[in-house]
Design a protein that fits this description.
Length: 403
Amino acid sequence: MDPVYQAQAFFGGPEGPNYGSPRGLLDIPGWQEMDKGEAAQAVEVSAYPDRYQNYEPVAETILEALTTGSELTPASVPESGRVVFPLAEDAAVQTSDYGPRVHPVTGEDSFHAGTDWAAPDGTPIYAIADGVVTSADYNEARGGVIVLDHRISGEAVSSVYIHMWETGIHVQPGDTVSAGDHIGDVGNSGQSTGPHLHLEILPGGRGTGEHTDPEPWLETHDAHPAPDTGSGGDIQPAGADNGDCPTQPGQGTEADAPDPEPGDGDGSHMVDDPTTGGQITAGMLHVYQQTSQAFPETSWVCWDERPGQDSEHPLGRACDVTFGNPIGSFPTEAHRQAGWEVTNWVKDHAETLGVEYLIFDGKIWVASRADEGWRPYDGGGMHDPNDPTGGHYDHLHITVTDS
């Protein structure tokens, strides 16, 4: 292989050796805005598009060693006395295994170098063992990425945590952490279809380029449950029974969010639902886009079949929104206040957004009866109003008009 020719061919451009066929990097429109892995895939068109991202920590380690003279092995760290699971057990659901799969975003065959656990946006992520933070940064393809170096049973190991929001990274390179320390929060950034943690385990350390299935690795190392965060289902919603919730504009925390843009044309025709495999109205999509842009850390589920229920979800006119809290549990006060922040913003802009009614925190607001304000929600004949989900304490329900 001629390294000079290979470099010239990769970059291409008007002076490249292949004259644009096959394309080099400079021949690809918009390459300047691409993530490094996306740009490499656009040029190389690999059958394994994840490979560039999977080996990015290794490449960074090699580059650091070549430019600074540092060692390729993980930093010297104390022996870790225990291993813990990276998420609270009651908050995590495994959604994607380690190994070959069809990439959920690109639709291409790929190799998944880690394991995914879905959890509510904002769920704490814990260090799996004592270690040192070697990198903590954010990029468009993977979102927030934290890499820790450990020494476990005398062996070097690195762990990689991916998809945090930029504000959900709570450590810096060089920090020393202990097993169970809160290092970040679950997010939905980068190439992601919902809030989750992607965890990778690199036996031998990040310099080896080798990875292994995290789930059996954690089992083999007798991973302890994550620390109790106190966010279980026995938490009651503050103010649920005494009426002190911020149910009027201006009460509670004001949302520092921009005004929404008005919809464009007929909002009743059906379009693809970005949160599920169904369809929603263009008006509902507009509410989703405007609200999630104003509050990017919310999580949404819209179309749902709902057999046997009188619901707008199968009609594509409704979405449910959470604020970092798990469904099925009463929210913490912080999650409840975050919920009212979003709810009051949507209510204040109901006319612009085409909202018909809202249900949250055991109360309902109907645009056509706005002069009555918020009223107690009785479950609508379908739900137990005292249940976290039935009473809509754990989520905001939004229904839009049919026009």
